[in-house]
Write a structure and sequence with these properties.
The complex is a heterodimer of chains A (about 290) and B (about 100). Chain A is an alpha+beta fold. Helix content of chain A is about 35%, strand content about 20%. Chain A has an eight-stranded antiparallel sheet. Chain B is an alpha+beta fold and about 100 residues long. Chain B has one domain: SH3 type barrels. In chain B, strands 4-3-2-1-5 form a five-stranded antiparallel sheet. The mean pLDDT of chain B is about 85. The chains are: A alpha+beta (about 290), B alpha+beta (about 100).
Chain lengths: ~290, ~100
């Protein structure tokens, strides 16, 4: 059996919750499991010594039926993200990249295929066709990471809001239920490492496109076709006619045409507002009461 | 529209973006779109001990809806002008109703 010093506590999780009340219970659960396990093993060894074949069989059967809980207990972070049956996406695939390793933090979940679709980012393991799927609203941020001193290979880093994503953590079952009402954790970190690192920019850009195409649904501020008064207020942004098309970014390169005037795809009213705010600073004093 | 316009004026400036999951990222605002999705360059994380994985990231895309606060460079913000614009916009939207 593993001695206590080798009992792996996931570092990030541990440090991020150290000020919470759940830390003691988190540890206690582990201790209880270990103690139970030791008891179990003692009995097991006893009956082995007594050469009581039937009892040994029974114990082995119990272990089998319990799905070798000590494996979970000893190495909980190996598969922290529980992989599930995920059907292979068929529609709206922007990008399908084979031979992409997925990592939860630094633990490999295996080699598989990464699908970036119109609605979600899905990864499916090649070994057992299980995987996970994250919808765009759950993706907090994503980036390309190239610093190999921190992680051995270049990768696309994705931070996921666990509560929105529906992803389950294996560690969650070790904790008390009361930890559910906890405030948000730092987010799940998932890394995608393609065999061919030339796909990295492509993966990054396709996720970015997906993000742009999937704004928040329940937030009136982002509501494109709400029927309430919000529509009037933001009506001037109507994308199809004279507003900003989705995917239009304001960067240092093109900001001139957006602040200046005629290149601007805004209504008169919008332009006036903009000008009032940013264009005519000299009139600013007049407008103050 | 006001916020979008305002953030557009901050393109190229250094900002600190605080996310709803308590991650704070400091970086140069590269670009912003109508959903206030933001791209940052040259980022650093305020709390690298809690977020060690972010140290290796230099540029990133942040979903607008996950942003809690954006800390602005104070010398770039004309608070009087902004307050005035807010009042004006509020008055406009009330007049429309």
């Amino acid at each position: 059996m593993h001695s206590m010093s080798t009992l792996p506590l996931p570092k990030t999780l541990y440090s991020s919750v150290s000020h919470h009340r759940r830390t003691p219970s988190f540890l206690t659960v582990r201790w209880l499991q270990l103690i139970k396990l030791f008891g179990f093993f003692e009995d097991f060894v006893d009956c082995c010594n007594m050469q009581n074949v039937e009892t040994v069989k029974l114990y082995l059967y119990c272990l089998f039926m319990l799905n070798f809980p000590f494996l979970n207990c000893s190495f909980p972070e190996i598969k922290m993200v529980i992989l599930k049956e995920v059907s292979q996406p068929t529609e709206g695939i922007k990008l399908a990249a084979e031979n992409v390793q997925a990592f939860y933090k630094t633990d490999s979940l295996g080699n598989g295929t990464l699908y970036i679709t119109d609605s979600a980012v899905t990864w499916i393991s090649r070994a057992d066709s299980k995987g996970f799927s994250v919808a765009y609203p759950a993706i907090v941020l994503h980036a390309i990471s190239t610093d190999v001193t921190v992680f051995p290979s270049e990768h696309v880093f994705v931070m996921v809001d666990q509560r929105k994503s529906g992803l389950e953590l294996a560690a969650a079952e070790l904790e008390d239920e009361e930890s559910d009402d906890d405030e948000e954790g730092p987010g799940l970190e998932i890394r995608f490492v393609p065999d061919n690192k030339d796909c990295l920019p492509d993966i990054y850009h396709q996720i970015l496109k997906g993000q742009e195409e999937n704004p928040e649904e329940d937030d009136p501020m982002y509501d494109d076709d709400g029927e309430d008064e919000e529509e009037e207020e933001y009506g001037e942004m109507d994308q199809s006619e004279d507003g900003m098309p989705p995917g239009q970014w304001i960067t240092a390169d093109n900001i001139d045409q957006f602040q200046g005037g005629d290149g601007m795809q805004m209504t008169e009213e919008g332009l006036a507002t903009m000008k009032r705010i940013f264009g005519n600073r000299e009139h600013h004093d007049d407008s103050m009461e | 529209m006001l916020f979008f316009s305002f953030f557009k004026s901050l393109v190229g400036k250094d900002v600190v973006i605080e996310l709803k999951n308590d991650l704070s990222i400091c970086g140069t605002l590269h670009s912003v779109d109508q959903y206030l999705n933001m791209k940052l360059t040259d980022i650093t994380v305020s709390d690298p001990e809690r977020f060690p994985h972010m140290v290796s990231v230099k540029n990133c895309f942040i979903r607008g809806s996950v942003v809690r606060y954006v800390q602005l460079p104070s010398d770039q913000v004309d608070t009087q002008l902004l307050a005035d614009s807010c009042r004006k916009e509020l008055a406009d939207s009330k007049a429309k109703q």
